[in-house]
Amino acid sequence: MKTTISKLNEHVGQTVKIGAWLNNKRSSGKIQFLQLRDGTGFVQGVAVKKEVSEETWETAKGLTQESSVYVTGVVREDDRSQTGVELTVTDVELIHQAVDYPITPKEHGTEFLMDNRHLWLRSKRQHAVMRVRNEIIRATYEFFNDNGFVKIDPPILTGSSAEGTTDLFHTKYFDEDAYLSQSGQLYMEAAAMAFGRVFSFGPTFRAEKSKTRRHLIEFWMIEPEMAFVEHEESLEIQENYVSYIVQSVLNNCKTELQTLDRDVSKLEKIQAPFPRISYDEAIDLLKEKGFDDIEWGEDFGAPHETAIAESFDKPVFITNYPKDIKAFYMKPHPERDEVVLCADLIAPEGYGEIIGGSQRIDDLELMKQRYEEHNLTDEAYKWYLELRQYGSVPHSGFGLGLERTVAWLSGVEHVRETIPFPRLLNRLYP
To answer: pTM of the predicted model, to two decimals?
Structure first.
């Protein structure tokens, strides 16, 4: 019976066949322990010399790291294994013998591993991180589909930007200027006016020359937009969504979190509602923590976000930022024109902002005023202005950065490990 490692526990006592790669191997003379992986998981295969043919023994003995094989054996329960089973090998069929595999069990430098990212992905740790990423994506679709959202795909090539062109990648679109999208938000607002509640999931690009552990040049965003939804309701949807994906990872990635040595007790606390503090309160909190130089009207950097997060054991919303440091489309606070109805969601443990969101301006005249203040050309943004002209309604939206969220839930330090092939300031290979 042919199966996969992830399903071996369904076949205890049965003889099965799997296709696998040799992750590692050790021998005690008359027993060979084969560490096997097949993409769905890892399992130990045990070949006992006196229980297999001489040909099978010699084939197993000659296997090198990352050689590909078909392995036949009997599934046995094993409480010491993460998967709860191991494979008593009866036959090994060599598919391809790998030679001089560059990534060995010894320590390697980060740049070496990044140069070999196409191979590093095979390691148990990277496999676990990508499984967590996959679960977040799966749970995202489930959450929004179950809550009446429609998936809409915004364009990646755009003629304008959501927040200015300074940090965008420019290209030529035949005879026109075009940019790689830094956000699908404006298009998602148009979609929300057609479908009510929508979400997108796709790549975004920022030409920021940043080298921090939180930044990538290319990353993936989940961006919901919601008609007839005001700021407070949007915050509730955000905290329910984040709680949902955290619980999904806890429930469905136990083995992966164990592989990553993740302290799950910290994640188990992540359930809505989340605390909320205003920007004003955040300034006061920072001054109490010794950030004497921070002034009202300044944006927060990584040290500020980390210091604020240390006061909470859940993600915390920082609300009502000054309008001068936020995007042109954010709606002013009804009682304070100098601040806007927005919030950043800051993850615990120093992982920084994972969500930015706001209620959008729905008044045509106010949006025209913002266009003038930000020198937005009428042609490039004409369609966006028309959303306020034909049946405007209160609406809100937010964007969650996938890689930062993966880093937080996995407990890894740098976002370069949270995307299969990271694009960094100094890296376009492989």
So the answer is: 0.96
